[in-house]
Amino acid sequence: MNPLDAICNRKRNDAVCVSNLKNAKAVDKGVLVERPDVKIFLPFRFFVYDVKNLFVANTYNRYLVAPSGDHLTSLIDEISYVSPPAPLLSQMSDVPAELFCNGDNRPANCGNNCQCVHKVDIPLGAVVEVVLVDEVQQTNLSHPFHLHGSPFYVVGLGRSPDNSIKKINLKHALDLDRLGMLERDFTKPTLKDTIAVPNNGYTVLRFRANNPGVWLFHCHFLFHVAIGMNLVFHIGTQEDLPPVPPNFPRCVASDADHLVSLIDEISYVSAPSTILSQYDEIPAEHFCNSDNRPTNCGENCQCVHKVDIPLGAIVEVVLVDEVQQINISHPFHLHGTSFVVLGMGRSPDMQLQRMNLQHALELDRRGLLERRFLKPALKDTVAVPNNGYTVLRFRADNPGVWLFHCHFQFHIVIGMNMLFQVGTPEDWPPVPAGFPRCGHYKPPITQW
Fold first, then answer.
1. 391, 409 Cβ separation under 8 angstroms
2. In this protein, which residues make up the domain named Plastocyanin-like (predicted)?
3. How many Å apart are CA 219 and CA 194, to the nearest integer?
4. Residue 70: count of CB within 10 angstroms of its CB
5. DSSP letter assigned to residue 263
6. Looking at the whole model, is its pTM more than 0.90?
7. What mean pLDDT is reported for the chain?
8. Which of 118, 170, 293, 330 has its CA 20 to 30 A from that of 98?
9. E strand or H helix at 170, and its extent?
10. What string of H, E and C letters represents the secondary structure of 38-56?
11. Are 398 and 327 in contact (CB under 8 A)?
12. Model confidence at 358: pLDDT above 70
């Protein structure tokens, strides 16, 4: 079905092209007229960046190392799609007009990787023909295009009948159309919502634009969606749409807090490579802790937060909640070992409104931090009381580098983590021969 070689202009015994199938149901004959109301040619391809134009060494806050391989953006009609800042159905008027573009209206400053909200306006009720032209031309790759909001008839697909043409492009497809050589079969064509465009070929679609709205049209490969192989068809006008319901949520600049998380006044960022197997390759200045903060660290100090612990040591950790958000208790989780929970609670000083490190140190000096050593519970995760503290103990007898973090995913992302390095690299097992290295992984190539 839908063979990759795109030989669809003759009957064959080994495959069936979608364009050769016949619709078992009644077709909309008004769509299958010789001249559509709107005809849109959409060539699509990749734009390959030069790595040096994307990554500049030693300039990245989170220590990005530029990987090898191609760095791509996708283009439809020479435009890479980016999402609007608000939903078009309910807030079209809130989106600045200069954010939109299409093949007839490209921004003046657009380069080879032109980016915008790619939007094609179509009158309500129009008969639309779309001709997709594959300018990617990667061997054995046929891009599956999907239309939201309406099915379409597949009236033709194939490759150029001119055997001297090695690579199809928009100009050649326009010439074929002018000469009547783009295959179209209006005899009961099949109805689809997704179709694979033949490699180095074309596909001709027809639909009636009778569903008002803003409908996404895109390649169905997730990676290609992410890098811009999309556009939207705006069918009709906003007056053709149902009214926005009262109190419908709006996408606006958030008035909420914008946060990073800090443990001991440090927000964790990941190391540029795996610490266990490539420890010696990480510059020492990437690491820090409260006793060794970078001189240029501000209120949102960021580093690979690492605390070194001697192998075999008995470790006590006192977690102090300075967040103090109502009804939230942060669940902290330790990798690599379990711990006993010796105590948790709030300050016995009823006059104290907000717990902080200084007060916790003062309680500890006075013996007022609760600790119970009689058969304490063994855990690997514990919730720290809101506006309170938790006291943990463990024996550091598992050498390695172990993550300690809040278990709320958002808090992990914004830095509420740290590492306990137990022992030294000499205490760790040797790195296995042939063990994968960051930046050096090459997947095996298998021929089928």
1. no
2. 83-236, 290-423
3. 9
4. 8
5. B
6. no
7. 90
8. 170
9. helix 170-178
10. EEEEEEEEEEECCHHHCCC
11. no
12. yes
Question: Cα(110)–Cα(98) distance, rounded to whole angstroms?
Answer: 12
Question: Do the beta carbons of residue 393 and residue 314 sit within 8 Å?
Answer: yes
What tokens does 104 get? 């007839």
Query: By C-alpha distance, which of 245, 242, 214 is closest to 230?
Result: 214
- Distance from C-alpha of 141 to C-alpha of 195, rounded to nearest angstrom: 13
User: How does strand 143-147 pair with strand 213-219?
Assistant: antiparallel
**Contacting residues for 362 by C-beta, under 8 A, at least 6 apart:** none
Question: In this structure, what are the phi and psi dihedrals at residue 92, rounded to the nearest 5 degrees?
Answer: -55, -40
Query: Which residue would you say has higher pLDDT here, 130 or 353?
Result: 130
Domains for the chain: give ranges and CATH numbers: 18-240 (2.60.40.420), 266-427 (2.60.40.420)
For residue 174, the surrounding DSSP H or E stretch is: helix 170-178
> In DSSP terms, which residues pair with 317 in a beta bridge?
392
